């Protein structure tokens, strides 16, 4: 095992600053362009020329510090680094990628700047890494590659300094972490099926429409000393990111943290765009942003109302009734102008099933979080 500075084994290359903005439209093609995004393996566009046959990139600006491997011809712009290995006789490129993925959080911790975080090349090249002999590198690659996606999701849990450690940690991921992830995926598939059924039910409903105010009550309870705050960013369609809820300090409570929801109710975002919708059979100890509406069904049966809130009809009407210039949203007056088909279901079955699945998903996430803490 030899200890190096990253700068001892790689040279950094930067891309063309012209490969950005409007210029990209003129050079569209089939070769991936890598930039500063943390998504889609760093790819932001496709252009008509390539510079590198394959290799490792690290985002420099934007979502800086993200490490990617590209087994195809590609190019980079000026907000990404390409790592050019000096001696490939001693370093397997794929092993170096795996090693840097295990150090990704360390790299991110070394970013500079406040308004725009960025990774200095001098800082990156000064990172210390342990490199085993080439035959050990190759053996570790053989262990990881059959489970590469699992490794990339939990790379901080895998030691790749020795063959024994790599085998042990990958086996832990396979035996313990992967089954929990598979259960989460199954729950999400069931949720998707129920959502599709609800949308179809509303579409097939042939009853006449009436003002939504005939069917709902708009609730507006204020903050009641809840422990956590949920901004609109943590909610998507029938999903709430509880891992990132904000623990409230009552002396510094955000002014928008002022919506206490009720049991057996819905919230959805006032902002136009993504359908941020969540359901609650029992209200949690969370105060929500006033960027949400909290509504209840007047007849206390929720399947029909849920089917409408998931429908394209609701999204279309919400968009048509938007107000504002910088941030288009739906106000209370215009919410009452929305029309909804009359209820033919008078049931709560699908609402209850989805609520149970969401709670199960929450519990599984909590278990997974605790398990991951044990291995860190």
Automatic annotation (TrEMBL):
MF terms (GO), sorted A to Z: DNA binding
List each copy of the Type I restriction modification DNA specificity domain by range.
3-151
Signal peptide residue numbers: none
- One Pfam match, given by its short name, reads Methylase_S
Q: Which processes are annotated in GO (biological process)?
A: DNA restriction-modification system
Q: Write down the InterPro entries for this protein, in alphabetical order.
A: Restrct_endonuc_typeI_TRD (IPR000055), Restrct_endonuc_typeI_TRD_sf (IPR044946), Type-I_RE_S_subunit (IPR051212)
Subunit organization: The methyltransferase is composed of M and S polypeptides.
According to its UniProt record, which protein family does this protein belong to?
Belongs to the type-I restriction system S methylase family.
Protein name (database record): Restriction modification enzyme subunit S2A
Organism listed in the record: Mesomycoplasma neurolyticum
